[in-house]
Write a structure and sequence with these properties.
Blueprint: E1 12-20, E2 24-26, H1 46-50, E3 55-59, H2 60-66, E4 78-82, E5 97-100, H3 104-113, E6 118-122, H4 124-132, E7 138-144, E8 152-153, E9 164-171, E10 177-183
Parallel strand pairs: 1-6, 1-7, 3-4, 3-6, 4-5
Antiparallel strand pairs: 2-8, 7-10, 9-10
The protein binds NADP nicotinamide-adenine-dinucleotide phosphate.
Length: 187
């Protein structure tokens, strides 16, 4: 079965994520301690990427992890958290964070109406849902040289294959291998 794509949308959706060599983005309990400490002055292309993003769209599990960070990292972006629950947002974030739920295509249409042009899609389940809906245009995947054996996966079942075009691969210190892929439109 061929994947239905929705690339006619004016909104570009990108993934920028680190994963273990065996495809996990976190330990089973959400732990990220296996990610190497960044070298001073090296952010693996993240600041260049995030500067182009106007909207960060993430699943509730990822948002809960973000709330534990010492500093809130999305001062310059509109943040949308996907959840079926009623989230109690910290007071400092009530005017910065919006909650949504529903079908990925409908969510993207709402974001487009709100003026979004480049959406950073984050969180394993969320990325899988948007990939299955044919809504991701590019993925920047940073492979960390570790086999976790178990954890929260990035990829999973698909309704059809998704062909990718390799754009470039950069090797960073600690053996981090970052590959940029474009998702190809199926005719
Ligand atoms: N390695 C990295 O670079 C990296 C990056 C990002 C995240 N992570 C890690 O990944 C883990 C989180 O990933 P995850 O796969 O557990 O999930 P996730 O995508 O962050 O969150 C999943 C949750 O989002 C909500 N959701 C997703 N799509 C929805 C939709 N269309 N409508 C309504 N609600 C929707 C649901 O929340 P409700 O249950 O509230 O309905 C669902 O349980 C965290 O541990 C995080 O630290 C790692």
């Amino acid at each position: 079965m061929s994947l239905e794509t929705n690339f006619h949308t004016p909104v570009r959706c990108s993934v920028f994520i680190a994963l273990s060599l065996d495809g996990f983005i976190a330990r089973p309990d959400g732990g990220l301690d296996w990610l190497p400490q960044p070298e001073p002055g090296e952010d693996y292309g993240y600041s260049r990427f995030i500067e182009t993003v106007d909207t960060v769209l993430m699943g509730r599990n990822t948002f809960e992890q973000v709330l534990t960070f010492p500093e809130y990292p999305y001062a310059d972006q509109h943040v949308v958290v996907l959840t079926t629950r009623l989230l109690a947002l910290p007071a400092r974030l009530t005017d910065k964070v919006q909650c949504m739920q529903g079908d990925p295509a409908q969510i993207l249409a709402r974001l487009a109406e709100q003026g979004a042009r480049h959406v950073y899609v984050d969180g394993g389940e969320t990325i899988r849902r948007f990939l299955r809906a044919g809504l991701i245009q590019e993925m920047i995947l940073t492979r960390v040289p570790v086999l976790l054996g178990r954890g929260i996966p990035l990829f999973g079942d698909l309704d059809g294959e998704i062909p990718l075009e390799h754009v470039e691969t950069v090797v960073y210190s600690h053996g981090l291998v970052q590959s940029h892929y474009r998702v190809l439109l199926k005719g």
